[in-house]
Amino acid sequence: MMRIRNVLAVLALAAVLPAAAVDVKVLAAGAVKSAFTEAAAAWERETGNRVVAAFAPAGELRKRANAGEAADAFIVPREGLADVDAALVPGARYDLGAAVIAAAVRHGAPKPDISTPEALKATLAGVKSLTYMDPTRGTSGKHFDETVLPALGMRDEVRAKTTFGEGGFIAEKVARGEVEIVFHQLTEILPVQGVDIVGPLPASLQKKTVYTGAVGSKAAHPDAARSLLEYLASAAGRKVFLDRGFAAP
Predict the structure, then answer these.
(1) How much is the pLDDT for 9?
(2) Cα separation of 96 and 210, whole Å?
(3) Hey, what CATH topology would domain 101-205 get?
(4) What is the pLDDT of residue 4?
(5) In this structure, are residues 86 and 80 in contact, taking their beta carbons and an 8 Å threshold?
(6) Angstrom distance (rounded) from CA 29 to CA 79
(7) Which of 54, 41, 31 minimizes the C-alpha distance to 237?
(8) Which superfamily does 22-98+210-243 belong to?
């Protein structure tokens, strides 16, 4: 009887004690870095858990996931979920926000016209240098290189004066004066100081990319990962994404 009472006492104590804090590992596309970091910090304050996040271009994320790298959660372009399906737990997916491709120039520089395909073509013909993501590494670069430029009939011409971005906030090349103009996800341009947004690509050439979260199949802390993703997709989390340049997914 004494042993039963002791067991019951331990169970009762466990029920009222807070769960031990855990480190939640997240592998995420670079486009979500600014919004994710802010929203995840709010979740950390609410739960006491810690988020350990790594950000990379979509192509690199795909390689890391398919190589078997473990993470509690992944945040990737929704269109690429099938490419990393083995790394994800079947079931719930959490759409967090949609990003568009935009252009930016150095702060104070004249803003060229890119409002129509014809205007964009004239602007690209006139600039001496530009940057966009390496098409083998990033979603925006792949679209710009394989869809936009061929549609304008000037892929080789533009490539000849392009410095490819390898990852991160490639608009910093414009801020430093290394190139004249950048084409990248708006959400990855906005955090960069020293540049001015020109505007989005013309609607007929635009690509809206929805970023989606999922729990990793090798997650060490799947419940905490699910809690984080649910917060990011909640009204509070969604507001952060909207404030950081995302559209509703």
Answers:
(1) 44
(2) 7
(3) D-Maltodextrin-Binding Protein; domain 2 (3.40.190)
(4) 53
(5) no
(6) 13
(7) 41
(8) Periplasmic binding protein-like II (3.40.190.10)
